[in-house]
Amino acid sequence: MNYIGSKFTLSSWIEGEVKKVVGEDLSRKIFCDIFAGTGTIGRTFKKEVKKVIANDLEHYSYVLNKNYIQNSQEIYDKEEYIRELDSLPLRSDGFIYRYYCLGSGSGRQYFSNTNGKKIDTIRLKIKEWREKEKIDSALYYYLLASLLESADKVANIASVYGAFLKNMKKSALKDMVLESADFMKNHNRHQVFNKDSNELIKEIKGDILYLDPPYNHRQYGANYHILNTISLYEEFFPKGKTGLPNYNHSPYSKKAKVPSVFEELIKNANFKYIFLSYNNEGWMSKNDIKNIMSKYGKYTLVQKEHKRFKANKADMGNHKLNKTFEYLHILEK
Ligand SMILES: C[S@@+](CC[C@H](N)C(=O)[O-])C[C@H]1O[C@@H](n2cnc3c(N)ncnc32)[C@H](O)[C@@H]1O
Q1: Burial class (CB in 10 A: 0-12, 13-18, 19+), 256
Q2: Average pLDDT over the chain, rounded to whole?
Q3: pLDDT, tens digit, for every residue of 8-52?
């Protein structure tokens, strides 16, 4: 998934830096990815550690992590459920078609009519199966994650869901195919939450805490609202041109609030090692972070140049450069 701030391309660098500090053998460690997003960092460490705790404020992220992180045991015949869902006759009475496709008269075109109907058809069947207890929680999250990933591939957007495109783009015209969101199997038990980081931090403890908070004004709940709508699938009245629901406002996306919420998080963290990803264009400067983290233990910094996330041309503003620095701030508490 093309995700703002995704650490997909940085995951092996982060893994290497964590091992340099904590040691090569992480098999007895508890690792927490508290701003998990797509779950890519938790997935990297899932094969290494005793337990991953993943968390995110957004529901679609919770679903992805329930599948990719918490699901660890084989789910028998899971591809057969995928095949059954993928070949259901389409219905036209679902929420996505009614409010986010042009054919229903909604005035919005986040998906082609066929794809909108197919997303609803699959979503409603998953809901029905769960309610009738035909599927358990593990299979439920696997199927839902498969739907989110597959729907994202055919969305008619530039790269985030803040707005839809006027004309259908090529990939959005393709018929959606429900693809399996396969997860890594292992013998350990992992845990996933859907909470505010600063609340959760008071309830957990472990060894390695990885922090990847938002670093600018973009609220994930607004930029990925359609994914939340598919995963929550609760009725509401979509408002305005883009059909935005009420969404979470993270304090990490508000310049004035960041230093205090960040310090509170560090202070309350019951973890020996803390790693923070933050890039050079974020609300807090390198020095702001150093000053806060140094109060709580031994602080170091490593950095790497990497490619900038391009949301759209307008968003690039005056930045002509396509490269940015990614910092990893390290605290031994
Ligand atoms: C930079 S992204 C993380 C990206 C992730 N590392 C990845 O590779 O996909 C920041 C994430 O923090 C989440 N978030 C924002 N505020 C939060 C809060 N107060 N508590 C928990 N999660 C929050 C957002 O929903 C978003 O998924």
Answers
A1: exposed
A2: 94
A3: 999 999 999 999 999 999 999 999 999 999 999 999 999 999 999
Number of domains in the chain: 2
Pocket test for ligand 1, best of 228, 252, 268, 324 (most atoms within 8 A of CB): 252
In angstroms, what is the span from residue 278 Cα to ligand 1's centroid?
A: 12
Strands 191-193 and 271-279: unpaired
User: Is the Cβ–Cβ distance between 38 and 61 less than 8 Å?
Assistant: yes
Same domain, 128 and 274: no
Among protein residues, the one with the nearest Cα to ligand 1's atom 27 is: 37
Specify whether 39 is located in the same domain as 108: no
Asked whether residue 141 falls in the same domain as residue 290, the answer is no
Residue reference for tokens 């949301």: 311
Looking at the fold, whether 130 and 234 belong to one and the same domain comes out as yes
41 lines ligand 1 (CB under 6 A): yes
Q: Can you tell me the distance from the alpha carbon of 207 to that of 2, in angstroms, rounded to the nearest whole number?
A: 30
Tell me what pLDDT residue 316 has: 46
Domain containing 262 equals 1-72+184-214+250-333
Is the beta carbon of 228 within 6 A of some atom in ligand 1?
no
Task: Inform me whether the pLDDT recorded for 306 exceeds 90.
Answer: no
pLDDT tens digits, one per residue of 171-230: 999 999 999 999 999 999 999 999 999 999 999 999 999 999 999 999 999 999 999 999
Q: Do 50 and 190 fall within a single domain?
A: yes
Geometric angle at alpha carbon 327, from 268 and 8, rounded to 5°: 95
6 lines ligand 1 (CB under 6 A): yes
Residue 206, token pair as written in the block: 């472990």
Are 193 and 284 in a shared domain? Answer: yes
Specify whether 173 is located in the same domain as 305. no
Q: Whose CA is nearest to atom 19 of ligand 1?
A: 196
Same domain, 105 and 242: yes
